[in-house]
Amino acid sequence: ETGVTQTPRHLVMGMTNKKSLKCEQHLGHNAMYWYKQSAKKPLELMFVYNFKEQTENNSVPSRFSPECPNSSHLFLHLHTLQPEDSALYLCASSHPGTFNSPLHFGNGTRLTVT
Amino acid sequence: ELKVEQNPLFLSMQEGKNYTIYCNYSTTSDRLYWYRQDPGKSLESLFVLLSNGAVKQEGRLMASLDTKARLSTLHITAAVHDLSATYFCAVGEDSSYKLIFGSGTRLLVRP
Question: Are strands A109-113 and A10-13 parallel, antiparallel or unpaired?
């Protein structure tokens, strides 16, 4: 497999559930990102990890909890979400050691909170 | 705080016509990107612009960057239906991994 792979593709969860989104990249990148794409807003940066260390947390509510165990894997743990959290969650990665390389995105997880 | 504005947000154009999408940003930046997103799909990188006056071309699309005006343009030449998609510009915050996206321009090319 190549590129950035996200699972699951679709997820429906109740407000009291706990679930996790998974992202895996096979590009040799060391920076990984979570973005949220809602219907009525621009893509919103949530978290950035560089060499497994979190470098950005864009004031994301604590009901979203990221985890980056190594440079190839990124998780987003979800608990007690709200209906307004329904969105497409996109994972991305970029080349190590440079700010200039473009982000490579996965296909996203379409999340619906009921 | 870095803000990125795109216009227009929606563009319906006829095949064969030319048009330009604009991307303005509010603070200095050392890099700007253009992405394409097809419905139900992920974002695909089109262009990376790293310096003032940079111009990149791929097929019927040409992107340019004016860092002094904090403006990038994506010019479409002789549009074809296959170009129908949403186009995003994204601007990098200086010395940071943060990439801020515009709202996107939904382009519809009509026969």
Answer: parallel
A105 touches chain B (CB under 8 A): yes
- Closest partner residue to A102 (CB to CB) among B45, B96, B100 is B45
Kindly list the distances between the CA atom of residue A31 and the CA atoms of A43, A51, A103, B64, B92, in Å, as whole numbers in the listed order.
18, 6, 9, 27, 14
Give the number of other CB atoms < 10 A from CB of residue B18.
Answer: 11
CA angle (B90, B30, A68) in 5-degree steps? 60
Return d(Cα B3, Cα B102) in angstroms, integer. 8
pLDDT at A44 over 90: yes
pLDDT in tens, B10-61: 999 999 999 999 999 999 888 899 999 998 888 999 999 988 889 999 999 9
Calpha distance A98→A86 (Å, rounded): 32
A95 close to A101: Cβ distance less than 8 angstroms: yes
Q: Using the beta-carbon criterion (under 8 Å), do A107 and B99 form an inter-chain contact?
A: no
> H or E element: which one contains A62?
none
Q: Which of A90, A99, A105 sits opposite B95 (nearest CB)?
A: A99
Interatomic CA distance for residues A65 and A74, integer angstroms: 11
What distance in Å separates the CA atoms of residue A57 and residue A37, rounded to the nearest whole number? 16
Contacts of B97 in chain A (CB under 8 A): 31, 33, 48, 50, 55-56, 94, 99
